[in-house]
Amino acid sequence: MGKKAFITGITGQDGSYLTEHLLDLGYEVYGFARRNSVTEHQQTRIENLMNNVDLTYGDMLDQSSIDKLLKRVNPDEIYNLAAQSHVRISFDVPQFTVQTNALGVLNLLESVKINAPNAKIYQASSSEMFGNSRDADNMQRETTPMHPVSPYGCAKLFSYSLIRNYRKAFKLFASNGILFNHESPRRGANFVTTKIIKNAVLISKGKINTLELGNLDSKRDWGHSKDYVRAMRLILNHTEPDDFVISTGETKSIRDLCKIVFSKLNLNYEDHVKINPKYVRPDELSYLCGDCSKSKKILGWKPKYSFEELVDEMLEYFL
Question: 3-state secondary structure string, 55-116?
Fold first, then answer.
């Protein structure tokens, strides 16, 4: 009998790739999904996996639903990927973001402590926790001070701290994966990578003429979701709970991404990209570049996808 994994946020980008990865390794996979009035859309990313997944409706703000599943399943591994995951939107719905991304993690930890104390917990932490803090070499790593600049980042820092606290206070096997930006063809349409690539394709086909964006000079460290879900499992199967940065160690600006994508379609981005102030964050995070040397050394992890390969895969999907 294989291990049993419980994934919150299973219908998202990372949840779907993680489910595929764990099923390939012989896991039994149990999923937690918040009910949506349009279930067809909600389950699109895992539609082909439904016969192999035990999917339950639940909510991170409803601890009773977490309790019921943990009692029924008694999982070996728990991957908490559930979140209000859009940083810009966290300024519009700060209370919901904090409730889901912070208090939801507290609910999970309390439920695990009571109902499944031997389960290993992975928390999806974020590079947004660093804010504009970086070390002298312009990198962010596990020891870099964290000064988030969005409600999303603040909530993630709270949950990151909770994981560390419950690990020490209650001896839970609880680990943080500090993941930098990661994308794929399954990324939501309102995230900047998908927005640029999808709309550039529409422009190339003559369907639209203009793409509106915010700050083109923000720099991010972009990897592929497939690579990053591999790291999640390695983190939980390490000999002891710990915190790990997962990144590529390379950074590119939004402007760089526009240049690359539009040029691959034989277009000049400057002819089509316009700045709209509504897409600029109230407090901007200007630069992210992660040092994942700890993950490489201790976990033996490294990304397989290059930035170019990621862009090509997303372009091919939307074309």
Answer: EEECCCCCHHHHHHHHHHHCCCEEEECCCCCCHHHHCCCHHHHHHHHHHHHHHHHHHHHHHC
| Cβ-Cβ contacts under 8 Å for 2 (sequence gap 6 or more) | 25, 26, 27, 28
| pLDDT over 60 at 41, yes or no | no
| Contact call for residues 141 and 135 (beta carbons, < 8 A) | yes
CA distance 291 to 84: 26
Question: What is the separation, in whole angstroms, between the first and last Cα of the chain?
Answer: 42
User: What confidence tens digit (pLDDT) does each residue in 97-114 have?
Assistant: 999 999 999 999 999 999
Considering the chain, what is the average pLDDT of its residues? 94
Q: What is the DSSP letter of 20?
A: H
What pLDDT sits at residue 190? Answer: 86
